[in-house]
Specification:
two-stranded antiparallel sheet; globular; 2 strands
Length: 472
């Protein structure tokens, strides 16, 4: 079995290597820079506006609010990546990985704005008046390339149901590795419990459990940031040195280009992308469900989600770990480094708190990831698949959760890296082609705001010729 998994990992690593050197970093940074300049630094210029629009009520009764769509996308973004992803980036890439995570988020905010605005413009209408959409729909409508939308929908399913859900399962079981009860069979048992709970929810028998965890996660997220700040304040004298090390390592170009595959730049970009998903084409699926008067409003909200995810929560993890006095090592990559950092600062409470946080974050991430897949299946089949098909799909998804708990850390990360890279190399070129439409919508929005209006969008205002369900 191990030989089979090692063989799979070597193939996955080889393909991933081709995509990441140099295509994924190049596409992410180039698109982020391009949209940053084209939007006149929207991440800074309209950050305050994004806070304002997130509180608006939906345009039509029964629609999801901007805040609701923010919570859906943030629930997907905020998860084990904010804890384990950051830890892994630091342990494998060094202090400088934190800087490149920041760069990925800041530039990615502009890309997130464009893709989510496009998703709003080209969203579709359900019979009950609610909306849905995403990259597959703007590929079909604006590019007139349905085949590409189908390919992208399949890759989203592979990314979330396979790559990300296996990784979330692995990350959760690894959070218990430092406890005395953890033994050779623990990964399988933890994975089995998680798979059963996951199956119960997606097969329709445990909606209450989903609601409870969905309520607890925002509370846990706030508590996590508070505890991180407490650790930083306890070691405030180390903060200047930590920032000095972050910037010194980030600009050590001989070291970066001497071993690019494992450099701080590569690890920061990979883990930053895993955490905030900016430019991948995942959050637009949530953005399309919001009922807003102007597509730009949801673009701004999703830009804010990237800010919350990386600049706030990922930075909290990074500073908490680096200020704890525990040095990062490759052997401690993942949950063990975060737990060691918290144990050094807060005693035995630290590892327990991280394990509980990981359990909640991982579970809600699994459910959120899965529901992205159902929307993609509807696009592929042009309707909701049969009950029999969905039952089989859900059982397979649960088996994958179990499998994720027992594979190696290397295979878990490599699989997630590969599929998210495939999303990037399709979605980024598409939004670069269609980005002009989003920039025109932004201009229309800002002109209406300057005139003192609550912006309302009409396709004709920007010369949009494609028929849309909402804006004609």
């Amino acid at each position: 079995m191990n030989q089979i998994l090692d063989g799979i990992d070597s193939v996955v690593t080889a393909i991933s290597g081709v995509l990441y050197m140099p295509w994924v970093p190049l596409l992410l940074l180039a698109a982020g820079l391009f949209f940053t300049f084209r939007s006149k630094f929207i991440q800074i210029r309209l950050l305050g506006e994004s806070f304002r629009v997130v509180s608006e009520k939906p345009k039509t009764k029964g629609s999801i609010s901007s805040f609701g769509a923010l919570m859906i996308s943030t629930a997907s973004r905020v998860g084990t990546g904010n804890i384990v992803g950051v830890s892994t980036a630091i342990c494998l890439g060094g202090y400088g990985a934190v800087f490149w995570m920041w760069v990925t988020a800041i530039l990615g905010g502009a890309s997130a704005f464009v893709e989510s605005t496009l998703a709003q413009i080209y969203k579709r209408k359900n019979k009950d008046g609610s909306s849905y959409g995403g990259p597959s729909y703007y590929m079909e409508t604006a590019l007139r390339q349905r085949w590409l939308g189908v390919v992208f929908a399949i890759i989203i399913i592979l990314t979330y149901a396979v790559g990300y859900n296996m990784l979330a399962s692995y990350n959760l079981q690894s959070a218990f590795a430092g406890f005395s009860f953890y033994g050779d069979h623990s990964p399988f048992l933890i994975g089995l419990i998680l798979a059963v709970l996951f199956a119960a929810c997606v097969l329709g028998g445990a909606h209450r459990l989903t609601k409870v965890t969905g309520t607890l996660v925002p509370i846990m997220g706030v508590l996590y940031v508070v505890i991180a700040l407490v650790v930083v304040l306890m070691h405030l004298n180390l903060v200047p040195t930590v920032f000095q090390n972050i910037f010194a390592s980030a600009f050590d170009f001989p070291a970066i280009f001497g071993g690019f595959a494992g450099s701080c730049m590569m690890e920061g970009i990979k883990r930053g992308l895993y955490s905030n998903e900016a430019g991948m084409g995942s959050a637009p699926n949530a953005a399309a469900t919001a009922g807003v008067s102007h597509p730009v409003k949801q673009g701004l909200v999703q830009m804010l989600s990237v800010f919350i995810d990386t600049i706030l929560i990922c930075s909290a993890t990074a500073l908490m770990c680096l200020c704890s006095g525990v040095e990062p090592t490759a052997e401690a990559a993942g949950a063990p480094y975060v737990q060691a950092a918290l144990q050094n600062a807060l005693g035995d409470f630290g590892p327990v708190f991280i394990a509980i946080s990981m359990a909640l974050f991982a579970f809600t991430t699994l459910i959120g990831n899965y529901y992205y897949c159902e929307g993609c299946l509807r696009f592929i089949f042009k309707k909701t698949p049969s009950q029999t098909f969905m039952t089989v799909f859900r059982i397979i998804a649960a088996v994958i959760v179990l499998l994720g708990a027992v594979i190696s850390m290397q295979l878990a990360w490599d699989t997630a890296d590969l599929f998210q890279a495939l999303m990037v190399v399709i979605n980024i070129p598409v939004i670069l082609i269609l980005g002009r439409t989003a920039i025109k919508a932004l201009k229309d929005y800002t002109e209406q705001r300057k005139a003192g209006k609550n912006p309302e969008f009409k396709a004709a205002n920007i010369g949009l010729k494609e028929k849309t369900d909402y804006w004609n």
